[in-house]
Design goal:
2 copies of one chain form a homodimer. Chain A has 334 residues and is an alpha/beta fold. The first copy, chain A, is 46% helix and 17% strand. Chain A has an 11-stranded mixed sheet, sandwiched between helices. Chain A starts with a strand and ends with a helix.
């Protein structure tokens, strides 16, 4: 299996990309094509003594910056490191794409260079977020600021299939983010979506989900518009940081703290590992015809390798074929 | 000073109301009028040995339930315990109102029975939420699902004045909740609000605020629509619960945990106190002509006493007169 990796997307590119790719080759037995300035990539690999086994380069000088208008990917930045990765994917030269670059540009590339699955109204970012009992899938985590009820319904459907096929969770509980538990709560978007979700017998819809229940693990698929989703994702990151700082403050200062840390080492490191988004791999762009994985902008080596692993699972589990089939079945039924 | 307390709003009414009122009388030197079924209130006080010094009763049998349509407060539940409290406030028989009842009904009562300050488009709930360095003010925390830019601008203005006058924070930093730091990010509501906030020289506007920065204390006044605000408020509560459970799991299980807890007792109890929303008193309904304070639905004795204290501060600091004057000044300038 061959995976394209955007060599110049993300805060720690290109070093973290090279290290992550090498780690993924070693751990998961995939081949990786890294896009971007080959001279810089080779020089960086040499300086950091990174093995090039299983790695290929696809040379291009241009990079699309994080602040640039996402649609420039289709024109002036068509042959940027990200654009090139999309070309490789659309031409079938790789099986999947991973990038830690701009979310907007990845959504644009997935939508216009790869295309949406027939019947899908909008592609959505689906992020795994840590919570008390493990983790949940948040869709949409930031691709679509404004949403219609049918879009949220499709997010619920695609999210459920992703958890079933890639994460092995049977009949995942779907919750609709709302400001109250009753079905009459929220704005028009929430009210209309509620009815669509309730009527879809293929979903395990558990009703409206007040945000209080999200970190406590009350749903497996947390459905909302991309503005709300992005707020939930980032607020959770902030809280994770806060929790981490709190543990540091408790345990790394003073004799009592250090002594306690030694006593509780296993528990604390388990907790920190569980709260580390890097362990959760990348976020798939659901709804497009080929596997596209968005890695966190601040991804390090570990996060990149996990995102590549994620891409491998999506390919192996034929997630996209499943979504496509389910949509076709649904159309037949309807 | 005399404060009306809705005796039958909230999960722990009427007992927590009686206990909280008695505590507030003792601690803050206020008088409290408790509304609701006097026979039940007196019986409960007797059974729990609660002092009635400084307390009065205003007898009414009806209660507006948490699931009832908020506007029923204006008709069939006009003389409920909450409706009666609004009557006392509107007739000038008390200086402020505190209720742990339905947010919707409190907003309706404030808006239609007390009226909005001239020029204010919508009343908003302003909640203090704990964060890393202390706490921040979230407006709107849930009164208005759909908002326009001028409304968010007024929330920012009122929130700043509240922090300045009641909490003594000079030039509080105002952040607009958005999905990116650049001013071009977000939907139309965010873009238009950004320009209004930027142009208002009376505000210390620090720009768009990504949700990651909220728990880390990057703004003092966190401005958003009521849907987003409610999600932020409740997600933060859920995370607080998660943090609390985590600390319990770390420290209350096993010998090493208990031993460490003993060593770190002071730090842990300080942290738990800081994360306890009950310490933060109630949330004022900003934008109405008299002091109305919403206490958390699950308020206990301590939370109710703090909410009453909050009401006292709002009266003493003449917060409403300040907002009214600032609006008049603004109108003159404009």
């Amino acid at each position: 299996m061959k995976i394209a990796l955007d060599g110049f997307g993300g805060d720690h590119a290109p070093l973290a990309m090279l290290e992550g790719a090498a780690l993924a080759v070693a751990e998961y037995g995939v081949d990786v094509v890294i896009t971007g300035d080959e001279a810089v990539l080779r020089k960086t690999a040499l300086e950091h003594n990174i093995s090039l086994a299983g790695l290929e380069f696809s040379d291009t000088k241009d990079v699309i910056g994080i602040c640039e208008e996402p649609t420039t990917l289709l024109q002036e930045h068509r042959d940027s490191s990200l654009g090139r990765a999309f070309t490789l994917l659309s031409e079938g030269k790789v099986d999947a794409l991973v990038s830690a670059g701009s979310t907007g540009a990845i959504v644009v590339g997935g939508t216009f260079l790869i295309k949406r699955i027939k019947g899908i109204k909008r592609a959505a970012i689906a992020s795994m977020v840590p919570c008390e009992n493990g983790s949940y899938l948040l869709v949409d985590a930031g691709a679509n600021t404004d949403c219609r009820p049918e879009m949220l319904h499709q997010f619920a459907m695609m999210g459920s299939m992703y958890l079933e096929s890639v994460r092995g969770i049977q009949r995942p509980r779907v919750g609709l983010v709302n400001i109250g538990a009753e079905e009459t709560k929220g704005g028009q978007l929430q009210k209309d979506t509620y009815h669509l979700l309730e009527q879809d017998k293929n979903l395990n819809f558990t009703g409206n989900l007040e945000a209080r229940g999200i970190p406590l693990g009350e749903a497996d698929v947390v459905v909302c518009d991309g503005f709300t989703g992005n707020v939930i994702l980032k607020l959770s990151e902030g809280w994770g940081k806060f929790l981490n700082n709190t543990l540091k403050d408790l345990f790394l200062t003073g004799f009592a703290g250090k002594f306690s840390a030694a006593l509780l080492l296993k528990k604390i490191s388990g907790l920190r590992k569980r709260m580390n988004y890097k362990e959760y791999g990348g976020a798939p762009l659901l709804g497009v015809t080929k596997p596209v994985i968005k890695a966190h902008g601040s991804s390090d080596k570990l996060a990149i390798s996990k995102a590549i692993y994620q891409a491998k699972l999506v390919v192996e589990q034929q997630m996209i074929a499943r979504i496509t089939k389910a949509l076709a079945d649904q159309k037949e039924e309807g």
